[in-house]
Amino acid sequence: MGFQLTEEQKLMQQMVRNFAEEVIKKRAAEIDETDEFPMDIYKQAAELGLLAVNMPEEFGGSGMDSMSAVLASIEVARASASVANIFSSTRHHLFCLYNYGTEEQKRKYIPALAKAELIGSFALSEAGSGSDASSISTTAKLDGDEYVIDGNKMWITMGNVADFTIVFAVTDPTKGSKGISAFIVEKGTPGFSVGKRERKLGQKGNPVCELLFENVRVPKSNMLGEEGQGIKIALQSLDSGRIEVAALAVGLMQAALEDSVNYAENRKQFGQKISNFQMIQSMIAEMATDLDAATLLTYRAAYLKDQGKKFTREASMAKWFATEAAMKHTTNAVQIHGGYGYCMDYNVERYFRDAKLTQIFEGTNQIQQIVICREVLKQWAK
Ligand SMILES: Cc1cc2nc3c(=O)[nH]c(=O)nc-3n(C[C@H](O)[C@H](O)[C@H](O)COP(=O)(O)OP(=O)(O)OC[C@H]3O[C@@H](n4cnc5c(N)ncnc54)[C@H](O)[C@@H]3O)c2cc1C
Question: Are 301 and 246 in contact, with CB atoms under 8 Å apart?
Fold first, then answer.
């Protein structure tokens, strides 16, 4: 396995770095402060081909691979993890549509998502159903040629700015997780509305809210995939999403390391640079080592995905390791900055707040450990 980047990937990485440095980084603190969805940046990203990096060109994508999407996510997360999360959420929706959509659904939604003419969301979680995704209570009952959807979804990223959502609902309660199906529901469909917006610790500017479904009627043709495929769609897209969350954590760690080194080299105490102190050096050494390890795990998962190989275990390993490391080292970055690190004049407190989410969403890190162990037991049990 080699991780030599292609010329095309290097060019894309540089292009995203420039965009992140010149546009996103300068706005990151403001987005954090105002908590407003950065629509202008989102549209610029679409123009640069950053939303549909790994979608085929015939659907308006950039025709690149998952490794390229990872490289893009890392660069954006270095500037703003919240903005990186917005872009990678869109790739999550694209994944579902591309892999399970009918030709008509693909033609309708994928090019429009790539161009930011439409925004999507992914509605699986509910107030009573998080890690145990198959325990959802939202239902979709067939009535003639239509399904009638009833229930409430919670924590839906970009739910209030989205033009449509991919919602998961029980179509056959007798079949357990195999009785769940996915549907596309467009904004404006009677009975479909946006509920409460959550006030979050970090990743501001990336809204999360409730979606309410009350007698929402959609034609049968709005089903995504086949009846009963809902959990398969959700879990497969979460596998891919985990690689992007790992990339997000890597970008956060890069930013934390750069800011920590810069601060430690300039801050003086006891008549010398604090980077001379071995306890500061220890934190920086561990940060740099974990950053490399997390990067390699993330690249490996993306590489396997691009090779068409199974990557469930590797995606969970990357997500778990990278996000635990990001939490630890963004905390240490605050420590290295002392009292200044606790204030909003420096970026490290934002990294620290933004890192926490990476341990929770796309499957908590406890769930990643369950997935890894399950895969390891499958592989090694005699
Ligand atoms: C900012 C944000 C954005 C989100 N975006 C979306 C979105 O766009 N779409 C969507 O559908 N969902 C979204 N989610 C929901 C997210 O996927 C869930 O929060 C996550 O899956 C965890 O579910 P929960 O919050 O209900 O926690 P729970 O599942 O209740 O877990 C609580 C605690 O118990 C632990 N736990 C649970 N089960 C086990 C077990 N078997 N073994 C050991 N420990 C366990 C968990 O790890 C956690 O520590 C988002 C969440 C947040 C916070």
Answer: yes
Residues of the chain with pLDDT under 70: 1-2
The structural domains of the chain, ordered by start, are 7-114 (1.10.540.10), 120-228 (2.40.110.10), 231-380 (1.20.140.10)
Ligand 1 pocket, CB under 6 A: 122-125, 130-131, 155-157, 200, 208, 357, 360-361, 363-364, 366-367
* pLDDT of the residue at 4: 87
For residues 83 and 31, is the Cβ–Cβ distance under 8 A?
A: yes
Return the best residue to mutate from 360, 370, 371 for the ligand 1 pocket (most ligand atoms within 8 A of CB).
360
pLDDT at 236: 94
User: Tens digits of per-residue pLDDT, 245-288?
Assistant: 999 999 999 999 999 999 999 999 999 999 999 999 999 999 99
pLDDT of residue 381: 82
